[in-house]
Amino acid sequence: MSKPVLNRRQLLLAATAAGLMPAFPAYTREKARVIVIGGGMAGATLAKYLRKWGPNLQVTLIDRNARYTSCIMSSLVLSGQRDLASLQYDYTALVQKYGVKIRTDEVVAVDPVARSVTLGSGKVLRAERIVLAPGIEFDPVPGLTDPDAMPHAWKAGPQTTLLRQQLLAMQPGGTVVLTIPKVPYRCPPGPYERACLLADWLAKKKPGSKLLVLDANADFVTEKDNFSSAFFDLHGDVIEYRTSTEVLSADAATMTLQTSTGAVQGQVINLIPRQRCGSIVASAGLANATEGRFAGVNVLNYESTAAAGIHVIGDSSATTQPKAGHIANQEAKVCADAIVRAFAGEQPDPAPVTNSACFSTITMTKASWLHAGFQYNPATGQMAGVPTASGASIGWNADNFEQMNDWFRALMADTFA
Ligand SMILES: Cc1cc2nc3c(=O)[nH]c(=O)nc-3n(C[C@H](O)[C@H](O)[C@H](O)COP(=O)(O)OP(=O)(O)OC[C@H]3O[C@@H](n4cnc5c(N)ncnc54)[C@H](O)[C@@H]3O)c2cc1C
């Protein structure tokens, strides 16, 4: 997203210095503080761009991990085409190039009124603005006492490696089950592309195996043309697709799922539960949208509709945009711009635009793509899809697979480098 803000800010600064404009409010000069919770796709982008566009701001980024592991591309770990190390990013550039302060700690409480953040270490930090970007949490699955028995691998990390090991250990001719939760969930095309990739891998490495895909939704939730021809034609010998099938409970001892359409068993079960905002968003009282699952925000600045001065970006927020890393990066830039303007006593950009691109692995070497543009609709107060800036590829090919790698490198560089 191109941002004319820097030039405009430089002009404003020049005008102020020349006495043509009132000076910025005192807190801009005195290093107003912003705390960012979560150093993933949304939080890392926000911290970087706050410092780029607001060099006077004191920005502290807190994450429980010293390194971020990207979910994007992580299904390729399951097929053995990537390892987790190739998906890990640290915060060195944010510190050294942009002057972001990093704290590796768990945030255990946020007080939106006092604008304070309590860390697991016991330290309490205060700021003029707090931005929450903690991603998602999963609903518990009745009966599943050990989540590792049926890994979601929907937060990249140890469960991704575990699911890979379980797939490798399965005998040929076995059944793998993959469950898709009700919308809204993280990465709408993600489970379908994982299914296609696994179907190709199973056909090559575990001949005679089946992939049973249980979708809690009534149909493919996105890119229907490509996924339906991949599921029913290309991978028709491997994939069995059941719609409107919700997981009710799980029994790891017998590797059985009770679902709304009957019981199923598998040798490996990739159980992706229903999702909600990060628990720190809920415990701060900000989960006031999507039946209490996600945080309502004003999409002009991503300020919570429940608390002034507190913002929520990325997968934890409830907007009309998909829960995706590319969109998280875009939301972060809109939010950063709005916060810098707010400290200068200005209103947010009244017409923000965001966009998202996504590549889906249809086989281990071929991909399709999807892109979507959004613009602010003042009548609804929401981001509305722009049909002329949205679309999908017709089919899939090896060139798209290459472009997927280029797109990923560029997105991660914009976020972490
Ligand atoms: C398999 C898969 C494939 C995907 N593919 C794509 C794709 O192709 N394109 C795309 O755009 N998106 C894709 N996504 C979606 C994308 O990964 C997410 O939408 C994106 O990561 C959301 O960014 P976020 O910043 O909201 O959350 P995250 O990136 O998850 O970051 C949240 C951060 O907050 C930290 N955190 C949480 N709570 C606390 C706390 N209390 N204290 C301290 N730290 C905390 C976490 O450690 C984490 O680092 C995919 C997702 C999956 C699972």
From TrEMBL:
InterPro entries: FAD/NAD-bd_sf (IPR036188), FAD/NAD-binding_dom (IPR023753), FCSD_central (IPR049386), FlavoCytC_S_DH_flav-bd (IPR015323), SQRD (IPR052541), TAT_signal (IPR006311). Pfam families: FCSD-flav_bind, FCSD_central, Pyr_redox_2. Residues 33-144 form the FAD/NAD(P)-binding domain. Residues 350-416 form the Flavocytochrome c sulphide dehydrogenase flavin-binding domain. One of its GO terms (molecular function) is flavin adenine dinucleotide binding. It comes from the Bacteria. Residues 160-273 form the Sulfide dehydrogenase [flavocytochrome c] flavoprotein chain central domain. PANTHER family: FAD-DEPENDENT PYRIDINE NUCLEOTIDE-DISULPHIDE OXIDOREDUCTASE (PTHR43755:SF1), PTHR43755. This is FAD-dependent oxidoreductase.
